[in-house]
Structure formats: structure tokens, C-alpha cells
Amino acid sequence: MHKEDCFYLGKVVSKYSFKGEVLVKLDTDEPEIYENMESVFVSLGNNLVPFFIDRCRLHKSNLLRIDFEEVKDEASADKIIGCELFLPLSLLPPLSGDKFYFHEVIGFTLMDEVHGDIGVITSINDSASQELFEAVKDGKELLIPISDEIITKVDRKNKTIHVKTPEGLVDLYLGQ
């Protein structure tokens, strides 16, 4: 399994017990759907290694307490502290309407209400406080905020996202 075939689930943040249980900080709005998993991929070095789960359950709000088959003592748990967990993309629940996963819109065309085609989405920048579409049009990069106020329609069939950008934003990048 390769990382590009998976989605990031969370990160092992601490040990929970002397029996090797660990706490995972989940990166999800719906932590409860991951309560009864059978396995996950753990990023060890440059590899994704399958780890099988004896038991997992929610711990507080967005922490998952996991008892792995392979981790039965503190020393083993120490080895995976800080490791990221991944699941196959096929396990993501399908979204409809104007909701989307970032990975699924790469390659979609941004269609602005005023300017028309303003570029193809090449990636999503989610490292800042405001998530951004990174798009390219005629060799120029555009950064378009991802927000409900800007996105008017997601058309999966035609691979387009319709947007209403703030006045002057597109001109800033494309000089139209």
C-alpha cells in the first residue's frame, strides 16, 4: 500500500497503559466512525505497515484508544509514538453535494462566475489558517480560498468547481 492510495487518519500521541495501548489524535469530524476498525497502516520510516487491532474505542472527544495485536508493552508502544496512521481511500464514506475530500478535486477546473475557467486545481494548501485551492492557468498560479461563501457548486460529473471569487482576486493573479 502506498501513501497516495490512503488518507491520513491521525497520529499516535501517547501511551495509555503499561500493556502497550496508545492514544491516537484523529483528524476527522466524525471520530465515532473509526471506533470498530480491524486494522490501520502505520507509517514507519518510508513504509506503510499494516497493524491489526485487538480493540479500539473513543477516548474523550477526538482521541482513539487502540490496543494493537503487535504492541503489548511500553517499549513497543514507545516505538510508534509520533507515527502517523493511514487508511485506504476506499474506506472514506462517499460525499455528495458541495462537500468534497481534498484529494478528489485535484485536476478539477475552477469556474468563476465572472471570469469563467480560472485554472485547474493542482493541490490544496491546508497548512495555513485558511485552506486554499492551488490552481494553474496559462502557467500562472492562483490561490483561491476554500469556503462556503466562495464555492457555489461542485460538479463531480464534469470535474468542475464553480466559484464566486472576491472582486479583484482573479485579476491579481491573471492580470485580466
Kindly describe this structure.
The chain is built from 2 helices and 12 strands; from the N terminus they run βββββαβββββββα. β4 (47-59) and β5 form a beta hairpin. By secondary structure, the protein is mainly beta. It has helices spanning 74-80, 169-174, and strands at 6-15, 22-26, 39-44, 47-59, 63-68, 84-88, 109-112, 116-125, 132-137, 140-145, 151-155, 160-163. It has 2 domains: 3-91, RimM (Elongation Factor Tu (Ef-tu), domain 3); 102-174, PRC-barrel domain (SH3 type barrels, Roll). The protein starts with 5 loop residues before the first strand and ends with a helix. Its main location: cytoplasm. Keywords: Chaperone, Cytoplasm, Ribosome biogenesis, rRNA processing.
Shape: elongated
- Number of helices, where a helix is a run of at least 4 consecutive DSSP H or I residues: 2
**End-to-end distance:** 44 Å
The CATH architecture name of the largest domain reads Beta Barrel
Task: State the share of residues found in helices, binned by percent.
Answer: under 10%
- How many structural units, i.e. domains? 2
**Physical arrangement of strands within the biggest beta sheet:** 1-2-5-4-3-6
Low-confidence stretches: none
Please name the fourth-level CATH homologous superfamily of the largest domain.
RimM
The number of E-state strands comes to 12
Q: For the report, how would you describe the main beta sheet?
A: 6 strands, antiparallel, barrel
Query: Which structural class is indicated by helix and strand composition?
Result: mainly beta
* Alpha carbon gyration radius: 20 Å
CATH class value of the largest domain? Mainly Beta
Strand portion: over 45%
What fold name stands as the CATH topology of the largest domain? Elongation Factor Tu (Ef-tu), domain 3
What is the mean predicted local confidence, pLDDT? 91
